[in-house]
Amino acid sequence: MARVAVFGGSFNPIHYGHLLLADEVREALGLSRVIFIPASFPPHKSPLHLAPAHDRYAMVALATAGNPAFVVSDVELRRPGPSYTVDTVAELRAASDDELFLLVGSETFLDLLSWKDATRIARLARFVVVPRAGSTFDPDSVQALKVLREIGQGRFVRASDPLAADGVLVVHATSLPISASDLRRRAREGRSLAYRMPDSVIAYIHAQRLYHG
After folding, report:
1. Which residues, at least 6 apart from 73, have a Cβ–Cβ distance to it below 8 Å?
2. Which of the listed CATH numbers 2.60.40.10, 3.30.70.1520, 3.40.50.620, 3.40.50.720 matches domain 3-208?
């Protein structure tokens, strides 16, 4: 049984921050693969500045090419309606016996009770919380413990804990000071995108005139 992480998001656009985070979590947890899943219709994101789903999928495919541990899935592009994580994880679970881990940022975890059927997600995949650099995420805070309790999990554990057979994992990974909103603004203003994402993705953005306003 392989250990596989699910890394969903709008990836609008994907950048080196996403890639480095995925690689460090893969290493920390001894994962076989990280599945990048671009959302077709993210239920918690405004569509105002969202590039078309097929373009965001293409950029993720370009960014992950060449790394055998990184794969990209179009599972949410093939499904109509809002891209709910519970539906995606259920589909992945039905398709294989892999041990699934779901990567989420600490801010996202604290907002988890607004997600569709978060408790079921926790039964289908193990949550991995990755605090952002400089984040004030406190696993012992009232808010964090409330989310933990509501999704039916007993504790937070470190990835390095040899006894961590259950619970929500907390993995600290390098957080690069790169934001997708800044990249979109740079593209719109005709500024450099270099050193922030793979050259293949930069070329795609320019060729398709994404985020150019």
Report:
1. 35, 36, 37
2. 3.40.50.620
